[in-house]
Protein 1
Amino acid sequence: MAATLIWISLLVGLRAGLGTTEVQQTTLHPLVGRVFVHTLDREAFLQLPEHVAVPVTYHAHLQGHPDLPRWLRYTQRSPHHPGFLYGTAAPEDRGHQVIEVTAYNRDSFDTTRQRLVLLIADPEGPLLPYQAEFLVRSHDVEEVLPSTPASHFITALGGLWEPGELQLINITSALDRGGRVPLPIEGRKEGVYIKVASASPFSTCLKMVASPDSQARCAQGQPPLLSCYDTLAPHFRVDWCNVSLVDKSVPEPADEVPTRGDGILEHDPFFCPPTEATARDFLTDALVTLLVPLLVALLLTLLLAYVMCCRREGRLKRDLATSDIQMVHHSTIRGNTEELRQMAASREVPRPLSTLPMFNVRTGERLPPQVDNAQVPLILDQH
């Protein structure tokens, strides 16, 4: 009975868990060459009231793949903040893509899945060949992704550009461009790159900022030349030394396709390779290479043997070259040394008295061994 209750509870729990993973589907329409931002709110996933703060994390991936497509990124500051899917689709990304997002409730461990159907198409309207990228150091990427800060940036940038339609085409975190994580100090931000495009040419102010003179001033640590009022300040602190302008109005010349030839070089008067190689005998070179070192080694061996064996002086020649007085002196010393050694070996001398037992140094007397040492006074004169 107890086992039956356990199985029933497990089946109820499994059914409840499967109920929490109900898949929701949402259709979105990203455009090629335009920034796409989708906010992941916990209210939309878990269907909670707005005043309820529940920590939620997300995991997103392309259907049938472990990760997101290359043009799409995911970021979330903390479980108490919303998540964002953002990126800019390329022309080769046109078509149909499905993103699966799973939300995890960190309090109750419930999971909710949502399927995002992305229908990527080309944008309508004129082309935007003039593109400018700005580095905003006063914001993080999560602070610019919502629509309100992005529209404020576009509106403020309109004062620096010629009148025309400005489109936000890309947003990238400075950390993805090799930037460093800032210190945990108030006011320090990671930074974000914002790329804007327009059909109108660049203004004189932007051209002056990107001029070589301004770049030279930036290399020396000075601010660049800015001939107009900075309408982005104080809400957006732009690093004007990191502004890049790209003009795509003039098409780039197509690369020449190399033509394949027949593989035979044309006649060149400066290059005349030999057509036939003459026969050559290498026996002489081999003999010279081997025999000459052997002969030299043999001559050196003979010379060394002559010096060591045939040039020895000998004992007779040494004695003849020595004077008679020196020879007599040497012989005398050797004879005296041998005589002293023989005398020392044959001498019979009694042992010194100091080495004998019971020897009295003061009187020179030697006591018999039967005497009791305890009865002998220390000083014999007092006896």
Protein 2
Amino acid sequence: MGEQPIFSARAHVFQIDPATKRNWLPASKHAVTVSFFYDASRSVYRIISVGGTKAIINSTITPNMTFTKTSQKFGQWADSRANTVYGLGFSTEQQLQQFAEQFKEVKEAARLAREKSQERFELANPALSIAAPQLSQELSEERHSPPLLTVNGPGEEKLFRSKSAEVELTAEKERVKKMLSEGSMCEINLEAELFTLQDSNAKLVEALEEANSSVDEWKKQLAEYQEETDRLRDQVEDLEAQLGHPAAAQTGREELNRSLEELEALLSARDQEIHNLQSKKTDVSELEREREDATQRLQDLERRNTELEDRVQSAETTLASSREEREQAEVEVLRIIEALDVKICDLKDLRQSLEKLVDK
């Protein structure tokens, strides 16, 4: 039985720069799926993420790992086997919290799996399990044994370092290493948070610039729509004068006027939103939420623009149909005129015949 996914989330993936051990390097251009997998045959939990055909995360979870939230939407963990630090940027704080909770649960499950594996190993090797307490007892006795003293002659006593002192010195070294490691991790966390804030600010500035350029483009499109609307109005008035059917043309004109008013209202609302975004304080989390809202509004506006284009095309189709009807009406009028001409000729002939009869 292969590995089974137990949890998945979407996030931007980063890795610590192996050269500086300080800066983050993006491992994916876009948000990718990051999943927890469980291998029942080996009792192993892994975090895997694939970008295209390449595995950008392949991290085996151990009980010693810790997932640290360095900001509202960014978290990281160190993988000593892969000799790297992974960072994940989520779109919401809730997704980050869910991933952190899942990491904690999987880490605890990995610890229990390791303990069960050790128990099975001890049961399979009873000699080792029996020897282990004896070795532990000997080490304990040596650890609590008094310092050794030797006398090399009268008045020359030398105090040698005992094994307990060596143990204390080793523990002190480990404590210093742990403090240095924790300080380095705090520095990495601060660097990661700073990188996230800078990246968010850059994205927000880029979004504002794109919004401003989009507004200018919409203004140009609005001017083009107004010119096109004026031209269509003139054509509608001509058709009304020629065909004498103002009702249908009036309806098409009102539809175009409503479409133009809707577009002007959307453009005005967009200008107000841009002004509000530029006047607000640069709070990163608030600006990011507003950027998402602005993106949604931009998509809605593009959809409305598409609908307006469809309406303009429908109006053009209606005008084309009106032209065809006018041409058909002209043909019908010509046909009627020709028929009247024939009847007039017949009447003239009949009149001449009557006049001849009267003369006779």
